Amino acid sequence: GAGVSQSPRYKVAKRGQDVALRCDPISGHVSLFWYQQALGQGPEFLTYFQNEAQLDKSGLPSDRFFAERPEGSVSTLKIQRTQQEDSAVYLCASSLDWGLAKNIQYFGAGTRLSVL
Amino acid sequence: GQQLNQSPQSMFIQEGEDVSMNCTSSSIFNTWLWYKQDPGEGPVLLIALYKAGELTSNGRLTAQFGITRKDSFLNISASIPSDVGIYFCAGRHNTDKLIFGTGTRLQVFP
What we know:
Oligomer: heterodimer
Strand content of chain B: over 45%
Structural class of chain A: mainly beta
Mean pLDDT of chain B: 94
Low-confidence stretches of chain B: none
Number of helices of chain A: 0
Low-confidence stretches of chain A: none
Distance between the termini of chain B: 38 Å
Number of strands of chain B: 11
Distance between the termini of chain A: 33 Å
Order of helices and strands of chain A: EEEEEEEEEEE
Number of strands of chain A: 11
Largest sheet of chain B: 6 strands, mixed
Helix content of chain A: under 10%
Radius of gyration of chain A: 13 Å
Order of helices and strands of chain B: EEEEEEEEEEE
Number of helices of chain B: 0
C-alpha cells in the first residue's frame, strides 16, 4: 500500500487478556517505530527497529510489552495480561533510512486499544 | 515519559486570523518537527527544521528553530476551517526516536 497500515483499527480487551497489534510499514522502509498515545497527550516512544533488529526498547513500559519484526517488514506489538492503564492509541511509523538528519517518519492511523 | 512543553494548550480563533504556538524543551535538539493530527488519524508532518535559527515556510505555515536549540514556534497565517486539528511539536536528539510535545488543539470558527 501507499502508506503505513495498522490493524485492527479498534480493539477491546478484557483486563488480563493478551493482544497483538500489527503494523505494515511502507514498502522498502528500513526503520519502524512504535509510539503510545494516551488520551489528550502527545505520542510517546516505545521501541524502534532497524530492519529486523530491535535497536531501542527503552520506552516499553513493562515486561508485558513485547515487539518483534522477524523479517524486517511487518511488525507486531504484543501486550500480555492487559491492564486498564494500557488503554491508548498505538501508533506505528516507518522511515526510509536511519541515522540521517532528514529522515522522515510516516505514521499509520493507529490502533485504539480499550481495556475494560 | 518525557514530553515537551507546548503552548497554548488550545486556541479558538475566527477564520482569517493568524495563529502562533510554541514549544520548549529542557534539553537541546538537533531537529525540530511540527505535525498535525486529525481525529482518528496519525500525525502528518508539516515542517521540519534542521539548523538553529532556521526559518522555514510551507504555504501559510512558518516555523523557526530557536537559537538555543531548546525551542521552536509555528505560525499559521490567514487560518481556514481545514486548519482545525491538534498540532504537535517533536524534537530529535542524535537518535531517530521523536520526543513529542503535549499538543495545541486549534478550533477555527467561520
